[in-house]
Fold this protein.
Amino acid sequence: MDYMRSLLLILVESGGWYAPALFILFHILRQFLFIPPAVVCIAGGLLFGILPGIIYSLIGLSAASIVFFILIEKVPETMNKLSKLKKRLFGPYRDLTISQVALLRLIPFINYHLLSFCLFDRKRNFNGFMRASFFANIPFVIFYTAFGEYIGHFNVIWAFIMIGAILIFAYMLREKIAFIKWREFFKPPI
C-alpha cells in the first residue's frame, strides 16, 4: 500500500500543472462514472495535501455543478426522476435550505445529485445555483479532504453518532414554513 501511495505521489509531483488539471477534469467526469465525490476529495487530500486538495476539489465540484446545471434541463427524464425522489423523501411541500444541503452532503450514502437538484429547485437561475452550490460544497470538501484518512479509523459507534448528529442538525436547520398553492390544498381526493 505504501509503495502505491509513494508511486502516486511521485507521479503527482512530476506532473507539474497537469496533475491538478487532470484532477479537476476527473471531478467533472466522475459524475458520469458513478464515483462518489467523497472518494475523489479524499484522494485529492492524499495526493496534493490538505490545502491544495481543498482548492482543487472546490474548483472541480464547481465545474461539475456547471455541467449539472446545463444538463438537468436538457435531460427531462432525469429531472422528473429526481423531482419524484425529492417529493418522496422530503415531502411535496418541503424545500431544503442551503445549510441543510451542506450538512446532508456530509453523509456519504445520501445521493449527491439529489441534493444538487434540491439546490436547483430552490435557485433556478445560474448565479443563484452556483453560489448556493459553492457554499454547500465548502463543508463537504473540507471534511472529506482534511479528515479523509482518519475516517477509516472510526469505529461503527462513532460513525452512527456522527451521522445522527448531522441528521439532527439538518432537522433543526429546516425551513419552518411551507407554501401550498390554493388549488393543491383544496383539490378533491383521488
